[in-house]
Structure formats: C-alpha cells, structure tokens
C-alpha cells in the first residue's frame, strides 16, 4: 500500500509540489499555477483536491508567518463571493470530461500569466473584491487555480502584506473548495492518501523559499515563475487538444 508513495509518478508529483510551494511562499501565490497542469498530465487524480489540501497547508504556514500584515476586514467581501463561486466550480467539475478539464486547466494558467503581465492598476473596492472572490472560487474549486483574480487586485500591496492577505484568503478559500469537492466525489480517502507524500515536499519548498528569497530579487523570481507557468499551461492545452 505504501508503495504508491514511491513510484516514479509520485516522485515527479512531489517535485512539482516542491517547486510550486517555493514559488507561492516567495511571491504570495503560484502553487497551483506551476504544479496543476503537469500534475494533471501525471494523473487527473491530483487535480483539484490534493492541490487544494497542499495549498491549505502552505497557506496556513504563510499566514502564521505574516499574521501581523493580514487585514481580515478587507477580505470579507472576497470570502463572501467565494462561496457561490465554489459551488459553481463544483458543478463544472461534475459536468465536464477529463479532456475538457485539461483544456480548462491549461487555459486558466495562460490567462493567469497574461493577467500577471498587465501594466495597469485596479483598486480593490468591496464590489471588485466580491467579484474576484467569486471567480477565485469558480477557478479554485474546478482547477485549484484560484489565485490570479485576487492577486490582480492586491498585487500593488507591500510584499509581506500581499503574502499575508493572500495566504489568509487561501486558508479559508481552500477549506470552502474542499467542502464542495467532497460531495461532488473529488475528495475521497484515495485523494487524501496520494496527498500525504506531497506534504513533506511542500514543507521543503516553503523552507527553501524562506531561506533564499529574501536575497533574491523579487522580479527575477516572478519572471521565472511566469515562464514555468507558461510552459506548464501550454503543455496542458496541447495535451487537451491532442486528446480531444
């Protein structure tokens, strides 16, 4: 039974989670954007629930680290919007085929890359936070990629404030997504089992980022992450097109 943790696929999955956790800790989001498309190619079982479980773990660590920078009041509307968005994402999971989900996943990653490169600033008003929360829930529950809508609104915050607020939002939003994925059949004991060996990899990625990213230019980390995102997203789209 434990042999499932030491297959080639499991080791590749752990490596992707390590990389995604490093990126998320360094810039505030990016775990699913980096890891989800390639994990889906290894096994669709890894998306979305195992990534959501890992994201919950990493988000708790980062939220505790940056707790003094968190402004819960400013996240209220986003969390309210997250609930109906998660329900809509759960409906999408039940309705679409695996091939369409691969296309959806890759398309979301490429969309996230484009959003991250936008030069203009959008102020995080309560209404916009609610809308961003809805789409974060829709994307996050259906594909585990719920970061871009919130990151777009909060990207101009000071670095630790951005990390803290995004981490706090992801703690609650990951739990909401998992609650929706369970009755939809996408969170079972099997999904929990294959997630267990990913947790140490996530922890190592978190620790390495804590040790190194203070001395690395944030812009270089961001550019590297976007390049990895583009490659993984394009790969998922290509795989979905070929399979279809």
Short note summarizing the structure:
The protein has 244 residues and is mainly alpha-helical. 78% of the residues lie in helices and 0% in strands. The longest helix is centred in the C-terminal third of the chain and has 26 residues, at 218-243.
Q: Which outline best applies?
A: globular
Order of helices and strands: HHHHHHHHHHH
Strand content: under 5%
Structural class: mainly alpha
The total count of strands amounts to 0
Uncertain stretches: none
What share of residues is helical?
over 70%
Largest sheet: none
Arithmetic mean pLDDT: 88
Q: How many DSSP H or I helices?
A: 11
Radius of gyration: 16 Å
End-to-end span in angstroms?
A: 33 Å
Structure write-up:
It is a single chain. The protein is mainly alpha-helical and 244 residues long. It is 78% helix and 0% strand. It has helices at residues 8-27, 31-42, 49-65, 72-95, 98-117, 126-143, 147-154, 159-181, 189-195, 198-212, 218-243. Helix 3 packs across helix 9 and helix 7 (147-154) runs antiparallel to helix 8 (159-181). It is globular and about 40 Å long. The mean pLDDT is 88.
């Amino acid at each position: 039974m434990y042999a499932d943790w030491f297959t080639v696929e499991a080791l590749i999955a752990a490596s992707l989670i390590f990389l995604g956790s490093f990126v998320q800790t360094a810039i505030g989001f990016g775990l699913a954007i980096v890891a989800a498309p390639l994990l889906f190619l290894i096994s669709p079982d890894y998306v979305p629930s195992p990534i959501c479980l890992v994201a919950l773990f990493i988000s708790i660590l980062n939220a505790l680290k940056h707790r003094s920078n968190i402004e819960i009041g400013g996240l209220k509307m986003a969390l309210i919007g997250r609930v109906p968005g998660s329900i809509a994402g759960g409906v999408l999971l039940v309705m679409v085929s695996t091939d369409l989900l691969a296309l959806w996943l890759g398309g979301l990653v490429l969309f996230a890359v484009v959003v991250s490169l936008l030069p203009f600033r959008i102020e995080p008003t309560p209404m916009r936070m609610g809308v961003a929360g809805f789409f974060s829930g829709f994307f996050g529950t259906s594909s585990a990629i719920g970061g871009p809508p919130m990151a777009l609104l909060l990207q101009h915050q000071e670095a630790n404030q951005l990390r803290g607020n995004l981490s706090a939002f992801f703690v609650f939003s990951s739990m909401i997504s998992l609650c929706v994925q369970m009755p939809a059949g996408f969170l079972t004991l099997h999904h929990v089992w294959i997630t267990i060996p990913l947790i140490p990899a996530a922890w190592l990625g978190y620790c390495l980022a804590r040790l190194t990213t203070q001395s690395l230019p944030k812009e270089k980390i961001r550019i590297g992450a976007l390049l990895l995102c583009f490659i993984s997203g394009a790969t998922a789209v290509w795989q979905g097109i070929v399979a279809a």
